[in-house]
Amino acid sequence: MARCCYTEKGTRAMSFDEKLEEARDGEGSMKINEMEQTKVSLMRTYVESQDPSSRDPSSQKADDLMIRRFLRARDLDVEKASALFLRYLKWRQTFVPNGSISLSQVRNEVAQNKMFLQGLDKQGRPISVVLGAKHFQYQGSLDEFKLYAFDKICTRMPPGQEKFVVIGDLEGWGYSNSDMRAYLGALSILQDYYPERLGKLFIIHAPYIFMAIWKIVYPFIDKIPRRRSTLLEEIDESQLPQIYGGKLPLVPIQDS
Known about the structure:
Blueprint: E1 3-6, E2 12-16, H1 34-50, H2 64-73, H3 78-95, H4 107-110, E3 115-120, E4 126-131, H5 143-155, E5 164-169, H6 180-193, E6 198-204, H7 208-217, E7 227-230, H8 231-234
Parallel strand pairs: 1-6, 4-5, 5-6
Antiparallel strand pairs: 1-2, 2-6, 2-7, 3-4
Helix pairs in contact: 1-2, 1-3, 2-3, 5-6
């Protein structure tokens, strides 16, 4: 589960933070408990019977941690989690037959210079920054860029880490940036194909007009308790981007 933080000004924010699992150890890495392991084994057996390609160890399609994320997204219901995971495999095979999205496929989105990836929060989760005012409505599909971005973030995760953090900076955000189709599409991909990956979403510099959009988006996000916090409560100054008073320069996601 994620927690969201937001604010109108400064680096105080409303965050979506994940519920701390009993299986999390003191350093933030994840352990699979006995009950989960049993369900992981059951789900693996069923998934492999339906999609033999998931057996390929080189594909890394169905490692235990990935299966557990899908299980947790469906409250450890093996049948529902298996259905979701098989849909993910089919989507991946159809949408990304070569295994990944190349930079040449997303040059238009990358040129907007709206997404960055650098640093780790205090739990060791990669930090992505999204500048909302640099995104504009687009007539075509943005699915390639979303997949490119999520895959990039996941490759930056340290060993044992499963989640990432997003800072959504809405300074200068206005009506021309209110792309509901893109927002809901990103949420759908994140929840259906990258479940249990978003650890926390900070929303900062949120204008009042954003709240009208937020009321529409909010019901589509799974289990989102809210609380106010500051970026420095969650991210050490050495890992925080310079634009928020930290030490790190913003690194465009394609260069991370």
